[in-house]
Every structure is written in C-alpha cells, then in structure tokens.
Design goal:
Helices cover about 45% and strands about 15% of the residues. It contains 15 helices and 13 strands.
Length: about 400
C-alpha cells in the first residue's frame, strides 16, 4: 500500500504513536509518507536545528517525512493554540496534495479535527481511502483543557468532528467508550473498529534499578512515586503535589517525582517553591530510551486526568508505557482505566480525584510489601504483552487498511 499519514505531531516530539505506526508499516513493506509540522511540542518552541520553512522533506527509517509550516504554540491561550492548528490545516491543504505523491490510503492521527478535515480533502483530491484514528474526542478535550468556554465555539467544533467522522471510510477509536460516543455522532457501526494505544515493548521494558542514578537524584532510600509525561492541564498534577504535601509528616521517605515538560510546569514548580513542599521534585524530559531506567527507580507510577466527560471513556497512552515497564500503577482515572487496573491486578485506583484521595492511594501503596508490589509489576508486564503489544496492533491496522482496497 501507498499510505499517507497526517499528524501534527511527529518525532522528535514525545508523541510516539505516529512515528511507530509509520515506521512499523514501512518495515512491513508499505510505502509511507508523513505530513507533519515543524517540531515544537510540548514547549511550543521550535526544536534546535529546525526553522519554519515552506516545507522540508527527508527520509527517516524508511519513512518519507514532509514537514509543513505552522505557527508553533502549546500555550494556554485558545487564540494561539487555534492559530497552531489552523496554520497546519492550511499548509496541509495547500501543499499536501502536491507533496504527498501517489497514495492509496490517507490515515489521520486525529488530533485536532482540523487535521481530519485536511486528510479527508486530500483523500478526495487523490482518490484515496480515508481512515480516521480517534485518540481524543472534540470538543470534549478542548473543554476539559479550558481552551474554550463559548458554547457556540463548542458546537462548531462538534459539527466539524461529526462531519469528519461521517466522511471516513474507517474510524479507529482507542477505546470502547470512544466507540460508543462516536456511534452517537452518527457513524455506522460497520465502519468502527477499536484499536487501543500500544507501546514498544523492546524500548519500554523492565530493567534493573540504577543505584548510581538513584544516588545522584537523592532517591536511594526513598519511596518514589513517579509521573512521566506531559505536564499539562488535563493531567491534574496539582492534586498530586498537594497529596505529597499532605503526606510530608507521616511519610518522611516519600518523594513525588514529576518528569516532563508542558504548559503547567512553571506554575506547579511555583507552588512547590512557595509552599516549600520538599518531597516533590521535577526532572526534565528524558528520551524514550531512558524512560525505562527512570521507571525502575519508582516504587509506583502515577497516572491521572482532571475530571471531565472525557476521562472515563478511554485509557491514557502512558498507561501502556507504564505497563510495558513492569511497574505498579496508581491510577486516578475513572471508567475504563480504573476497570483495567482492577481487572489486571497491577495497581490500585484512587478513591477520589482530590489531594486526599490521591494521598490515601499512596498510603495504600506504601503499606504493601516490596514483594506485593513486585507481583503487581509482573502482572503489569503480562497485561501489556497480552493486550497492548505494538506489533500485533500494527498488524490490525494493516489488515483493516488492506481490506479497504479489496
């Protein structure tokens, strides 16, 4: 197949699924081109070595990567974020049909829906089939992140999302909850197939604890709760920090480590400094190859989302990464994530999305023996292998796209 993948994010940005999909399909013998922007996520600043140009093309690991101009931004400003999305849409619309080459299938890594609209238009112009991968629901995501407050704007975004979903030959949501919501938007059930997030089990895997790294970070004799990922509004990390504050006196060995970058990081660091919360530390983002090493320092890996209509409907992508690393998980995400944690017996769920609820979850984890947590870690890796291994889920993508061309 000749496949065009449209994604506003691509490596070196820390959003692995688009490049894993592209490189995985290329390794299976398909001709893959990616339309993406110049890398700026999550800071909103262009990466070193990149400058916005009319376009830039190179081949990386068998994938032809076409970078298009966009306004770089990942701030809390709805106006600037909209400019980010719209400029990529316009670039993809103007240059995509010309630079994409011959294609059989257009696959859109669907965030935001403007990318989906661009992908559909390109598919019509190039007489290709259109596949829409749904990793977030709009306008739910924008509302939960505080990007929009206007009900009129929300209705306009919802109308755009419905239009794109209905035009797709194939819609691939990441969860059963997303599938139910998409059915409500008028998409026929026969076009819907659930494919969850995956992780690269060779990259993210259980590794021995690094005593020298633990010593350098001051974590050698600590009970470590690690959050690794985007430090944004949706992750609700202020409650985790306040939970650490609540436990300072009763759990002196506790250290909460936040590893990552994002729009909320400066504000959260300010809270830690102002309140002198000395059991919370921030670490700069590490490349994917190092995530497993840092995960091995943790007694518990934490995942959370702010309460919204979206949070119960899917499993955040970092859960698969955590599972692959084989560490116990403390989840502050209701719905499908909580059900997965309970079914897999690889962690605990917080009782409420409050500092008190998270603190109680940490207490319960700390009260377990090292052996009990080790058993949880082994179960985590087993669930990953059985349900979220990358090669099998890539194969599912491949078969569904090939079926469109029969």
């Amino acid at each position: 197949m000749r496949i065009l993948i449209v994604s506003i994010y691509y490596k070196p940005e820390p959003v692995p699924k688009p490049h894993e999909l592209a490189e995985g399909l290329a390794a299976r013998g398909h001709e893959v081109t990616v339309l993406t922007g110049f890398p700026n996520y999550p800071s909103g600043r262009l990466y070193p070595g990149f400058a916005v140009r009319p376009w830039r093309t190179n081949v990386v690991n068998g994938v032809r990567v076409v970078r298009l101009p966009l306004y770089p931004d990942h701030s809390a400003s709805a106006l600037l974020r909209s400019a980010h999305y719209v400029t990529f849409f316009l670039s993809a619309l103007a240059l995509g049909p010309v630079l994409s080459g011959l294609i059989d299938v257009v696959y859109v890594w669907g965030n935001p829906p403007t990318s989906g609209l661009a992908g559909w238009i390109i598919s019509r112009l190039r007489r290709a089939r259109f596949v829409y991968g749904v990793h977030d629901l709009w306008p739910d995501l924008a509302l939960a992140a505080g990007m929009i407050q206007s009900s009129l704007v929300a209705r306009m975004i919802d109308a755009l999302e419905r239009f794109v979903l209905r035009k797709a030959d194939l819609v691939l949501p990441i969860s059963d909850g997303f599938r139910r919501r998409i059915l409500e938007k008028g998409v026929p059930a026969e076009r819907l197939y659930v494919i969850p997030h995956w992780a690269d089990g060779a990259l993210y895997r259980p590794v021995p604890r690094d005593p020298a790294l633990a010593e350098r970070l001051g974590l050698s004799s600590c009970f470590v709760v690690l959050y690794a990922g985007n430090v944004g509004r949706l992750q609700g990390l202020q409650n985790l920090i306040e939970a650490a504050d609540l436990l300072r006196r009763t759990h002196a060995s506790l250290r909460v480590v936040v590893m990552g970058d994002g729009v909320e990081r400066p504000r959260l660091k300010g809270i830690v400094t102002e309140r002198q919360i000395n059991n919370v530390m921030f670490i700069d983002p590490e490349p994917p190859a190092r995530v497993a090493v840092y995960s091995a320092l943790a007694d518990v890996l934490y995942v959370g989302l702010v309460s919204s209509t979206l949070s119960p409907l899917s499993v955040p992508s970092k859960v698969q990464t955590y599972l692959a690393c084989g560490r116990p998980i403390l989840s502050n995400v209701p719905g499908e994530t909580a059900e997965l944690v309970s079914r897999g017996c690889f962690g605990l769920n917080c009782e409420s999305d409050t500092p008190q609820g998270i603190a109680e979850g940490i207490r319960r984890m700390a009260a377990l023996s090292e052996n009990e947590r080790a058993v949880m870690g082994k179960k985590a890796r087993q669930v990953f292998i059985e349900e979220f291994e990358m090669s099998s889920l890539l194969g599912r993508h491949e078969k569904l796209m090939e079926a469109l061309l029969v």
